[in-house]
Amino acid sequence: MKILGISFGRKNQRCDIMVKEALFAARAEGAEVEFINTMAMRIDHCHACDYCSRCRDKGEVEIKCCLKDDYHILEEAYLNCDGIIIGAPVYAVGIVGQFKNFMDRLCPSHDRASLLEENKKRAAAGKPLLDERYFKDRYSAYISVGGAGTRNWVALGLPMLHLFDFSFVQKCVGHVDAYQQGITAHPVLDRDLMERCASLGKAVAQSIGKPYSQTDIWVGEPEEDGTCPVCHCRMLNMNGTTEVECPVCGIWGKMSVKDEKVTIHWPEEEIRRARNTQEGIYEHYNEIQDMIKICISKLSDPQNAEYIRQEMDRYKRFNEIVSSPESDS
Description:
Elements lengths: L1 E6 L6 H15 L3 E6 L13 H7 L13 H9 L3 E10 L1 E2 L1 H10 L5 H14 L13 E7 L11 H6 L8 E8 L2 H4 L6 H17 L29 E2 L4 E3 L6 E7 L2 E5 L2 H5 L5 H23 L1 H15 L1 H5 L7
Parallel strand pairs: 1-2, 1-3, 3-5, 5-6
Antiparallel strand pairs: 3-4, 7-8, 8-9, 9-10
Helix pairs in contact: 1-8
């Protein structure tokens, strides 16, 4: 079993130290470990050019990005691992943008539902199947690192990290919210924090090789009423009723309040359709397919096409129009 640790923080600083502590524990459990720091890497944002989709549609075995930067190093390391531990800093309430760049380039292009459907077509046509690494079940763990002593200044750290689970249908077995680093001074001075980081590596190592249904490991902070049972994050979407939604996993629960104490019942059928499950990722895939049909129908309408052409002229000439003194209309 191979566990990959990625730090999106400064070299030999807090993120590095915590991820490496988790990898030390994973290695003690018998795992082969690899560590990558991304600080000196260039990982550009996705250009939405559809090159990766065209690779798939042309029958390529591997789905690649055409941008020439260091993304491919992380991509290959991830595809070769069985479990992943990511540590990333919070600069402004949410996780650093380099992590989002990596996730945007890797995850949507490897959406498991769309790739499973692609493989069905290839099998029926006797064509080469996609790289089998795209369908490997992996376990994950996350470390959000922030300097703030007030927790709400790092509130989106862990939820953003959990977004990495969805496309590959990963199962997270733990996370650590390592805020208050401004007063901790150095992570090794906080032995409880380091032990919690080590527990992440141990949990990932002990989970690898087991089916998701047979793994109920969770390491992190104590459960609280209202915490999502899937991602274990604390955020809730409200809709004006007692129905509440986890904005990370997209599952709904029923909230009740007694003596100022909140309890939320999360139905099993909702847990089964969380975004990091096969059912959840197919729900999104089917939604997109239905949207494509509607969109193509609208764009194929000659009247709509002519109206769009006429309207687009204004937007294409935006600078010319707004810089002209006669552009009041």
